[in-house]
Write a structure and sequence with these properties.
Oligomer: single chain
Strand order of the largest sheet: 13-12-11-14-15
Helix content: 25-40%
Number of helices: 11
Shape: elongated
Strand content: 15-25%
Mean pLDDT: 89
Structural class: alpha+beta
Number of domains: 2
Number of strands: 15
Order of helices and strands: HHEEEEEEEEHHHHHEEEHEHEHEEH
Distance between the termini: 31 Å
Radius of gyration: 26 Å
Largest sheet: 5 strands, mixed
Low-confidence stretches: 1-23
């Protein structure tokens, strides 16, 4: 679930970078002048140590720490190199952690109780009001989703899914409204997972790309030296490239490269010979566990639509011909179109179709053009239903 990672997406953005490059040394050699203060009062949080941490290449590193007094008041001072995302941890547990999008010279005030540490009232900065509001909304969602997983009302699978969509949709609506209202807000890097595609591009609104680019540009204008924003920009660039590719592959105008290989009997078969039918090109292998687990669904859909102009062209990345043939028989892959060059990952077809893992599928229309990429499970079933039942 994407919201689990929403709070710390910014930390992950720099996970491939050496923190020295972003200005935070894992082994600082000199004392730097304090340029932030975090203070507050945590009810029932007396005599607790608070840790401000950042993500480094080898894990979390401590930036600063402080201890609360007998009334729960605490103060942490330290130095940060620039705008970024940090986590404030209360005590030794990892269960009481909140994200802070600190900017140099920030003076942050936090009010909460020990029990409500993850839903604090934060003041003192231009991002604190948004954080306060979001943390309360997110944690209410998290509480309701946890209850939903327990399913005390014995709801059906469809009802559980519908309830989840309702709960998560409310969080998404809040986030997207805030991203549009104030794209340069430093806390936006915590919110953007709601605008990022989590399960491919099939149902992803195109306006989210415009929204993401607006936030990235606004943050770059405000924090031009930030490694966090630089990495965010790279992420969004990658999303844009994949989205454009998805749009092209779903246009119905891009011809699929032809595939010419031999079947288990050594006879040449060509993908182009199947023009006039809707074709699912299924890249798989006998040694691929996820492929084998998906096969019953593919078999079921083939049997359902084979008399309506649908067929499957299976391309195996096997290298052992006997294992390939045995898997075809065992999984009851009854369609006649099975091919392989038995070159495993050295097969030229991998470069032709641009995939890096299997199972991988492309769906072609009667003209042999791409209309969908990497559909399987419920998404594949829904697409075929649209083609053959509407």
């Amino acid at each position: 679930m994407k919201y689990v990672f929403a709070l710390f997406i910014g930390l992950m953005l720099v996970s491939c970078e050496n923190m020295d490059e972003s200005g935070i040394s894992e082994n600082p050699k000199e004392e730097l002048k304090d340029n932030f203060v975090i203070s507050g009062k945590i009810r029932n949080g007396q005599n607790m140590t608070f840790y401000l941490e950042a993500q480094a290449q080898n894990g979390m590193i401590e930036v600063a720490k402080g201890t609360s007094d007998g009334t729960g008041k605490f103060e942490i001072k330290g130095n940060i190199p620039g705008y970024g995302i940090y986590s404030l941890r209360m005590g030794e547990t990892t269960e009481k952690v909140i994200p802070l999008t600190l900017v140099p010279n920030d003076k942050v005030n936090i009010e909460a109780s020990s029990a409500t540490f993850k839903t604090p009232t934060v003041t003192g900065t231009d991002w604190s009001a948004l954080m306060t509001e979001y943390m309360k909304i997110y944690n209410e969602f998290d509480k309701q989703n946890t209850l939903l997983k327990l399913n005390p009302e014995n709801l059906s699978k469809e009802e559980v899914n519908a309830k989840y969509q309702e709960l998560s949709g409310a969080v998404d609506d809040f986030v997207l409204e805030k991203l549009d209202a104030d794209p340069s807000n430093p806390f936006n890097v915590i919110l953007i997972p709601s605008a990022i595609p989590s399960q491919g591009f099939n149902d992803w609104p195109a306006e989210n790309l415009t929204r993401l680019k607006r936030v990235e540009q606004s943050l770059m204008d405000r924090f031009p030296e930030s490694k966090y924003v630089e990495n965010l920009g790279f992420q969004i660039y990658q999303i844009e490239q994949e989205f454009n590719k998805h749009q092209t592959y779903n246009s119905g105008t891009l011809p699929a490269p032809d595939i010419e290989m031999v079947n288990p009997n050594g006879e040449i078969m060509r993908l182009s010979d199947l023009r006039g039918q809707y074709v699912l090109v299924d890249f798989w292998a006998s040694w691929c566990g996820p492929c084998r687990r998906e096969n019953p669904n593919v078999v079921r859909l083939y049997n359902k639509y084979k008399n309506k102009g649908f067929t499957i062209f299976s391309v195996s990345l096997d290298e052992n011909p006997e294992a390939w043939k045995e898997a075809i028989a065992k999984d009851k892959l009854s369609w006649p179109n099975h091919v392989s060059d038995l070159k495993r990952w050295d097969s030229p077809v991998i470069q032709q179709y641009g995939f890096t893992g299997i199972p991988f599928t492309v769906l072609l229309n009667k003209e042999g053009n791409f209309i969908a990429v990497n559909l399987r499970g419920a998404a594949l079933e829904q697409k075929l239903k649209e083609l053959f039942e509407n």
